Amino acid sequence: MEVIRNDRLKIALRILRAFLFIFLIIAVLITIGVMSLLTYAKVKGAPPLAVPLSTLLYAEDGTLIGEERHQGETRYWVSLDEVSKPLLEATISIEDRNYFSHNGFDYKRIAGAILADVKAMAKVQGASTITQQYARNLFLEHEKTWNRKITEALYTIRLELNYSKEEILEGYLNTIYYGHGVYGIEAAANYYFGKKASDLTIAEASMLAGIPKGPSHYSPLNNEKKAKHRQQLVLAAMVENEYISKKEAQKIYETPLTYSKGEAIQRETIAPYFQDIVKKELHSNLKLTKEMIETGGLRVYTSLDPVLQKNAEEKVVNTINESSDIQIGFVAMDPNTGEVKALIGGRSYQESPFNRATQAERQPGSTFKPFLYYAALEKGFTPSTPIRSEVTTFTFDDGRASYTPHNYKNYYPNDTITLAQAIAVSDNVYAVKTHLFLGEETLLKTAKSLGITSDLKDVPSLALGTSGVKVIDMVNAYSTIANGGSLREPVFITRVENYKGEIIYEKKTKSKSVLDPANAFVTTQLMTGMFDEKLNSYTAVTGSTISNKLTRFYAGKSGSTQADSWMIGYSPQLVAGVWTGYDKGQTMDLTAEKRYAKNIWATFMEEAHKDKPPVPFKPPEGVVGVYVNPDSGLLATKSCPVSRLTFYKKGTEPTEYCAEHLEDHDKKEPKPKKKKKEEEDKGFFKKLFDWF
């Protein structure tokens, strides 16, 4: 018997040792497995937290003006600081009350779920943590397979090892689905309640926190009864987590909610033509891929001033007859930074997204003349330079061709006029004579140096703006004159951030000095003449129809062809250019149509400067101002009925006094030198050559 007992004991000890050995092997294997899993997760590194997100476009004041959506889905990204505290508490309470204390897996909850499923003999309770749900939302399909479960666990471990609880929660709240094509809490708050996630009340938050469990079932817009029942469960969970009391929960439950009826905050369509340019710039200049632009969750800050944009749009609507087919191209720009503040590419973006401000090339007419006259100043012309204006036929191309420019309504002084008068009344003969004297290539080179990108025809009529140009180029060129000669690229984007708020692009001011500051200022002063009736000559100055509407210091130039009407002008603070015309080249025959551009410009500029102090154009060094008789261009005397302060590059100002109105008894004024008859008989070109 003793032998038998010893044998049995030995057998039991062998079995126990075997079990211990097997247990040890299993423990080692589990340890190795866990260590391998952790090592794999660490080596694999941090998985990306972002999913496709809507790219948002902002105006300069932070106003949201547009967005790029991924496949029609609304997705925004906000930080935890931008989410209301009640929403965070409600979400944690109903989805994962032990979120901040577990390592990605809630084992107690898993055990409870298993017991509940066994008792019911069916899948009745889930145990996924917020981290697990986030892993599923980021990387996996929602099919119920063992392979997916294992992969989900791996991603969960990787998330927990590489990110803080706050980062994971932030990502989760920005990616969960709330129904109706809406992803993330910011989009959900906007969609259901028409507000930001930071502004959600506890009643609204408890309603939204219950939706992700089953968006089609618990959306209050689909079934408010089920949604309210789900809200009650959320509030009960908040009570259990001691965020609120039972009494508070009941009061919150009874609080009536006002929904947006399935509509997000109605974002007014702001500057759609401008937005198109911004998207194009992101791709062509910043080299961002189409995928990044559409799904990267970028925050794009632009130069657009929504107040100026609204001002411009209102002036177009109020000025152009509603039944007219006339189109418009409009650009307003800060001359000192190159930032585009307002832009209109047409009367209706929905009817035609073709951008007439940046894509169309139309004949600029006399708005091209300031480039010519700047070039003339560089060659020795002054505001007082006289040229005879009369019907003149010019031959060119070695006598094989001829050209006869005509003034508006065929009015001619048949006498000499000064440069200051010529630009103020827009005399075409003076312009063509100047152009041919300088050499046709001079104007072309000057225009190109000012940023005109269109192909220009090197012909006599180029002085009158017969080659097509873009509105954006013309406004930028005028900005260059306005700021004293610094050429800048038009700026549409000032800063771009990724979804984390990290800056990936910031505007760098680049400029190139292309004009002499003194002559640029004299050109500006020449352009103030279109509004000054002191320069009326054989006809009125071209700005006489709008000068009574203006209360500020402006420089500008209008222009017209049979099919185009332009007005471009500026103050020291703002440049604006307007083109109006028909898309198909139809001529503008009505007087009212021809005045659209000027009237839009004048009313826009006045309102744009309404709250700004008047600022005069400040002369740079090397410029002097003297009072001259506008008709002769000579120094004015007390006897001259009209005198005008006129600016010259130092050393080119007139030194002779006007004798036309000199009284015989006035001995104090110096007498002008008498011209010799042979000098009076000199031809136009001979006189000009004598000046150099």
Automatic annotation (TrEMBL):
Glycosyl transferase family domain location: 62-238
UniProt domain Penicillin-binding protein transpeptidase: residue ranges: 329-605
Keyword Glycosyltransferase: yes
Ranges for region Disordered: 658-681
GO molecular function, one term: serine-type D-Ala-D-Ala carboxypeptidase activity
Membrane spanning stretches: 20-41
SUPFAM superfamilies found in the cross-reference section: beta-lactamase/transpeptidase-like, Lysozyme-like
GO BP, sorted A to Z: cell wall organization; peptidoglycan biosynthetic process; proteolysis; regulation of cell shape
The keyword Ligase belongs to this UniProt entry's keyword annotation: no
Protein localization: Cell membrane
Keywords, ordered alphabetically: Carboxypeptidase, Cell membrane, Cell shape, Cell wall biogenesis/degradation, Glycosyltransferase, Hydrolase, Membrane, Multifunctional enzyme, Peptidoglycan synthesis, Protease, Transferase, Transmembrane, Transmembrane helix
UniProt catalytic activity: [GlcNAc-(1->4)-Mur2Ac(oyl-L-Ala-gamma-D-Glu-L-Lys-D-Ala-D-Ala)](n)-di-trans,octa-cis-undecaprenyl diphosphate + beta-D-GlcNAc-(1->4)-Mur2Ac(oyl-L-Ala-gamma-D-Glu-L-Lys-D-Ala-D-Ala)-di-trans,octa-cis-undecaprenyl diphosphate = [GlcNAc-(1->4)-Mur2Ac(oyl-L-Ala-gamma-D-Glu-L-Lys-D-Ala-D-Ala)](n+1)-di-trans,octa-cis-undecaprenyl diphosphate + di-trans,octa-cis-undecaprenyl diphosphate + H(+); Preferential cleavage: (Ac)2-L-Lys-D-Ala-|-D-Ala. Also transpeptidation of peptidyl-alanyl moieties that are N-acyl substituents of D-alanine
UniProt superkingdom: Bacteria
Basic and acidic residues biased stretches: 658-669
GO cellular component: outer membrane-bounded periplasmic space; plasma membrane
Principal cellular location given in the protein's record: membrane
Family (UniProt): In the C-terminal section; belongs to the transpeptidase family.
Protein name, per record: Penicillin-binding protein
Gene source species: Fredinandcohnia quinoae
